[in-house]
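quick one, two chains, predict together pls
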Amino acid sequence: MLAISLLLHVIMEVYYMMKKIANRYRYSMILLRELVIVDFKLRYQNSVLGYVWAVLRPLFLFLIMYVFFVMVLGVGKGIPHWGVALLLGIVMWSFFQEVVNQGLKAIVSSGGIIRKINFPKYIIVVSKSVSAIINLLINLGVVLVFALIDGVDFSWGMLLIPLFILQLYIFALGLAFLLAAINVKFRDIGYIWEIVSQALFYGSAIMFPINRVVEMHHSMAVAMLVNPVAQTIQDARYFGITPKVDTTVTLTDNWLIILAPYVVTLLALAIGAWYFHRRSPYFAEEV
Amino acid sequence: MSNYAVEVKNVKKQFSYSRHKNNSLKRAITQVFKKKDTSKDSFFALNGISFNVEKGDFFGILGRNGSGKSTLLKIISEIYQPTNGSVKHDGKLVSFIELGVGFNSELTGKENVYLNGALLGFSKAEVEAMYDDIVEFAELEKFMDQTLKNYSSGMKVRLAFSVAIRAKADILILDEVLAVGDAAFQKKCTDYFETLKGSGKTVILVTHSMGSVRQFCNKAVVIDDGCIIFAGGADESADVYLSIFEKKEPGVVKPAKHKGVELVSASTKVEKDYVNINFVIHNKTNTPMSDLYIFADILRNTQIVTGFLTADIGEGIDLSARETKTLELRLKNIFGKGSFCINATLRDGTQNNEVIDSRVDIVEFENIFGKDEYYPIEAIVERV
């Protein structure tokens, strides 16, 4: 009898817990959806071209780089379809930057709501990244158009690109969580991140082929590829556009080094999520 | 599962005094070299609060500004974490620390309804289903496609309230919701509270209006300086709450010291231009009294907005033995919209203006004629 009532009790407890989690999840999804919609409406309000800017921004960055670096300085000579590879790199970088930058400001800029109502805070950071994902998808369409015009051959490796983008997203989200939580107490992090992200941009071999670094300092190139931003972009170029671009597999046989960027990615998410989760109960009074 | 809707156990909340928080690099570095002494630059906003709210209670939390009641409410709503102790609740809890949380002035009324609804846990389909009712209740049919920045504050409150009352919750937490809006809106609030009262839902209400405490709550606690100073029925709690002001505010005099002459009651009639106030005074003794006068404070949300002295408008009141007299006064209606209450003392002009009787909240009146301006500047009173 005792055993049965105990079992029943446990079942009830588990049931209540599951129900609570299910309710919380449902609430999170409702909120996420609405916050994404609002974010969209607000971001392009009162602008004539509206959403077109999401495409135009990376496109113009690409044009500027193409004119100065590719046409004037001759960067990327000898690499087929370098223009497309450059565009893909810029699009992926823009995505990464948007997720992290929007995420970093997310909690602080939502102080008004956080102080007044209890809800899962991570939703704010995630909602900001959803707009970035939508921008990315549109931009990838533009890359595809350029690839067709430039005559890039279809390869099965192209199908790996979404996986690299997923990895980049996980890394960006991890950083976004970490920085968003730090930003609540320590506003300097925004400025620090600005500098770090500059370094990351140049250190990820986005506007020049990494082959140039390999020619000069082989080990330096390998070290650069431990950074998931560099690794995902070079991998996407290597598998999707042209095998003439170096990437981890072409530069080393050391499996530890090849695995390193994946470990860094997961570590970033784990640390970011852990720190965010730990700090989120105090956002309301600190923000 | 416990029998209580909300269980508050020994809750303490510590806040840091100093405004210089550790949020810049320079501070962080200089702070490293300073020894931390948290006891000096922090204080307890709540200092060991414990109480239980039973299911179906309409529970009042009373306290002066800065007494810690809003902090307590935020802890119950899981917005703040307690430094010590715990808060448990059983059932779905929805809190309204403020009406219209998340309202964005750049969005239209309609978009804000969906956003606010989502924050309350309503899906798009659910908001759609009740959208027409919300708009109708708020009486904003023509304005739903306008951005919120073009709304008046009253319109915003009406919209927020219309969404808020849809909230599906077992436990509702309401903070000062009554303090805003015009008389018509307050009527809607009152009606809503009436329906809540019989619904079996648990409600926790924080308010400064003793009228609503007496009308709706069945239990209440009074908080002062972060501690519970009284817990019990609503009427007693309201009395205790008002007595805090008598003790601490220099303008208000100690409770009645009956000398046989009583300030029995008062009534009011509000007109567009005048507020008529009648005070009933009774002499229980066989000795005639002379040169009495009334000193009255008019308060709004426990704040004194103005006052008058009947001695300023002619000779004192004379009462013969066993006489009951009604003193009819007429105040120019310079008051803002909303409800006011009157504290009055009866004083003896022959005895160094000694207080003979004092009544807190002797009468309340509702002014529906005034503008939205908050305070009158000066009372103009005459004898009729």
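Residues 249-258 of chain B have pLDDT under 50 and may be disordered.
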